[in-house]
Amino acid sequence: MNWLRRMMYGRYGSDQLNVAMLVLSIALLLVSRLLRIRIFYWLSFILLVLCYLRMFSRNITRRHEENQKFLRYWFPMRERWYRMTDNLRDCRTHRHFKCRNCGQKLRVPRGRGKVSITCPRCGNQFLGKT
Ligand SMILES: [Zn+2]
């Protein structure tokens, strides 16, 4: 792998943005194959070329800035996705109730039939179907 190291010397290499572009490029290629949409094939090709151009770029500061910009969008997006899948998983195992007295949100495991629920905040008791 010496030739590779020599070739990559002074060049930017890979980062998160490049990985994202590569994944998107492969996804577009698959979609273009499945739906036979030509434009997706070309988009995939362009992305791949851009990916390589970034990798072999000597303008390391500029590429680093691009990656930072990408990460500023990417991290909140990933965070939102994690929260969404967590909520979905929770919905299957728990039911959410709202105390009619104080508005406190309560979480009760599913599948216990009709149970008496006591609000931990105000002590209000009510029946709920799990
Ligand atoms: Zn309450």
Total domain count: 2
Number of helices: 4
Strand order of the largest sheet: 1-2
Shape: elongated
Main sheet overview: 2 strands, antiparallel
Q: What Rg, in angstroms, do the CA atoms define?
A: 25 Å
Could you give a quick summary of the protein structure above?
The protein has two domains: 2-93, no CATH class; 95-129, no CATH class. The chain contains four helices and four strands.
Set down the secondary structure blueprint:
Elements: H1 2-8, H2 16-35, H3 38-55, H4 60-93, E1 94-98, E2 105-109, E3 114-118, E4 125-129
Antiparallel strand pairs: 1-2, 3-4
Helix pairs in contact: 2-3
The structure holds zinc ion (ZN).
Zinc ion binds next to loops.
Task: Explain how this protein is built.
The protein has 130 residues and is an alpha+beta fold. It folds into two domains: 2-93, no CATH class; 95-129, no CATH class. The protein has helices spanning 2-8, 16-35, 38-55, 60-93; strands at 94-98, 105-109, 114-118, 125-129. A two-stranded antiparallel sheet has the order 1-2. Helix 2 (16-35) packs antiparallel against helix 3 (38-55). The model has no long low-confidence stretch (mean pLDDT 93). Zinc ion is lined by residues 99, 101-102, 104, 119, 121-122, 124. Residues 99, 101-102, 104, 119, 121-122, 124 line the site of zinc ion (ZN).
